[in-house]
Amino acid sequence: MIGQRFGKLKVVSSAPRAASGNIMYHCQCDCGETTLTSASHLRIGKTRSCGCLRTESAARATLAATTHGMKNTATYRVWAAMLSRCRNPNAQQYRNYGARGIAVCKRWHKFEGFLADMGVCPEGMSLDRHPNVNGGYKPSNCRWATTLQQARNKQNTIYLEYNGVRKSLRDWEDDLGLPKEVIYGRVKNGWSVERAIETPYQSQKAHPR
Fold first, then answer.
1. What is the C-alpha to C-alpha distance for residues 90 and 87, in angstroms, rounded to an integer?
2. Whole-prediction pTM value?
3. How many CA atoms lie within 13 A of 109 on its CB side?
């Protein structure tokens, strides 16, 4: 093993066995430092430097979060929360996102990519997956949305397509003045979407018996 390289380490000499019985080696790191580690840790890749790799990784993470000057903004918090619920099994919402296969596109793994595509989060809005609420986080499937828009874009939201336009029942109700319960009831009873929307409706309140 002497002379072999493992990551940034080169094995230079053997060392006395550890109290646990592990075979130990002195290693020279590319950064100039030396370190003592076990043969098993070298083989499985657990030890790849004198410790400078961890320091470098932490420095890169800090730099990425601070150079854009947005670490304490709503936009950054939205981005961080998105990554957490999709990639961290310990996150509270992971079961509803990452565990269901909802992923974040590679470009958005870095905040700069997310910011370039989505821009700054408008006040009072949040990140919404649209038009596919079951799809992943990517430029073509995300928007900044109001609380009302978010509420209408849930997994159980019913959508209907009419004249080439796809909207939720609630949106059709707002646009047409036709109660969503009426539209849904008609479609559920076998009416075509066209007939359900185009057939006039007069409430019982307007025409009491």
1. 9
2. 0.47
3. 7
Q: What is the pLDDT of residues 158-206, one digit of tens each?
A: 777 777 777 777 777 777 778 878 887 888 888 888 888 888 877 644 4
Cα four-point dihedral sign 70, 51, 45, 40:
negative
Q: Which backbone phi and psi does 73 adopt, to 5 degrees?
A: -100, 165
Contact 184, 169 (CB under 8 A): yes
83 or 22, which is more confident: 83
Task: Name residue, tokens 């793994």.
Answer: 109
Largest CA-CA distance found in the chain, in angstroms, rounded: 100
- Hey, how many other C-beta atoms are within 10 angstroms of the C-beta on 58? 10
Structural contact between residues 82 and 127, judged by C-beta atoms closer than 8 angstroms = yes
